[in-house]
Design goal:
- It is a single chain.
- The protein is mostly helical.
- It has one domain (3-124, 153-264).
- It contains 13 helices and no strands.
- The chain has helices at residues 3-26, 33-54, 58-70, 72-97, 101-122, 129-149, 154-172, 177-201, 211-216, 219-234, 239-245, 248-260, 267-301.
- α2 (33-54) packs across α4 (72-97), α3 (58-70) packs across α8 and α5 (101-122) packs antiparallel against α11 (239-245).
- The two termini are 20 Å apart.
- The chain crosses the membrane at residues 7-25, 37-54, 75-94, 106-123, 130-147, 153-169, 181-200, 212-232, 244-261, 267-286.
- Belongs to the EamA transporter family.
- InterPro entries: EamA_dom, EmrE-like, RarD.
């Protein structure tokens, strides 16, 4: 199996898991979203350290850590990645707990097109007119929702931008997936502990002897496993292809939001999604044509 195929499989499984996460976070909605976020960071750190120990990859982790301290730009990039993905986590948990799963779905639909734009700006990737039209269609969808529905989709934009930035950093920082995720968890751990301490001092902690807290103990595995898969996949395939595969996640979220969580979905929201979907279909078609041409050219050269 080629490295590209492995990357596609890893990324696809990551997005499937992310797609069903609204169901999981709905199980712990008795706890405040930012307290959930703090615990998510703490238990993810514990899970990753145990995983490194059990898989006997501590030496690899030490080597990666030394490498980061030798290359300060990479160190700052990983720290930034840790806090960027934390913003993404917090926004997503808040969205699920406040019945905005469809906005979250919209955000992750926009994300691939945001990844395309970042690839253009930072990685020098160039795109056709059709691909730029795809981005424009998504932009029109956001504008329509802002003026017709009467609310700017803050949740969608934050989720799309933060995850696109995270994907960009993971693409350019040459650190193995296990070490990268562990370091990201460790650098955000102090903020999580400080928040838990603050809650304890103000008697505002809701974590305790209840069912939601029991489910929350699994948040480390739920968080780390798809991140590991995503990190491993992102390093093996182009950023633009990573964005293409990501359509799996928001599609699952979309159906969960409507059919399982019974969120409100009207004609204006449908029109917004139609613009986004049109952009995705157009971009997907252009990528398909591009891949077909490259395959034919490769066969001809052989």
């Amino acid at each position: 199996m080629t490295e590209t195929k492995k990357g596609i499989i890893y990324a696809a499984f990551a997005y499937i898991i992310w797609g069903v996460l609204p169901i999981y976070w709905n199980l712990v909605n008795d706890i405040g979203p930012f307290e959930i976020l703090a615990h998510r960071i703490i238990w993810s750190t514990v899970f990753m350290l145990l995983l490194l120990l059990l898989t006997k990859q501590l030496s690899m982790f030490k080597h990666a850590t030394v490498k980061l301290f030798q290359h300060k730009k990479m160190l700052f990039a990983i720290i930034a990645a840790g806090y960027i993905i934390t913003v993404n986590w917090g926004t997503f948990i808040w969205a699920v707990n406040n019945h905005h799963v469809l906005q979250a779905s919209l955000g992750y639909y926009i994300n691939p097109l945001m990844s395309i734009f970042l690839a253009f700006v930072f990685l020098g990737e160039r795109f056709s007119k059709a691909q730029w039209i795809a981005i424009l269609l998504a932009f029109i969808g956001v504008v329509y929702m802002t003026f017709q529905v009467g609310e700017f989709p803050y949740v969608s934009i934050i989720l799309a931008t933060s995850f696109a930035l995270y994907g960009l950093i993971k693409k350019v920082v040459d650190i193995d997936a296990f070490s990268s995720i562990t370091i990201e968890c460790i650098v955000t751990m102090p903020a999580a502990l400080l928040y838990i301490f603050y809650l304890s001092q103000t008697d505002a902690i809701t974590f305790g002897m209840n069912v939601s807290s029991g489910w929350l103990l699994l948040s480390g595995a739920v968080t780390a496993i798809p991140l590991i898969l995503f990190s491993a996949g992102a390093r093996k395939i182009p950023l633009s292809l990573t964005g293409f595969i990501q359509y799996i996640g928001p599609t699952i979220m979309f159906f969960i939001g409507i059919f399982l969580l019974n969120e409100h979905f009207d004609i204006d929201q449908l029109i917004t999604f139609i613009f986004i979907w049109a952009g995705i279909i157009l971009y997907s078609y252009t990528k398909y044509v591009e891949i077909s041409r490259n395959r034919k050219k490769l066969i001809k050269d052989i």
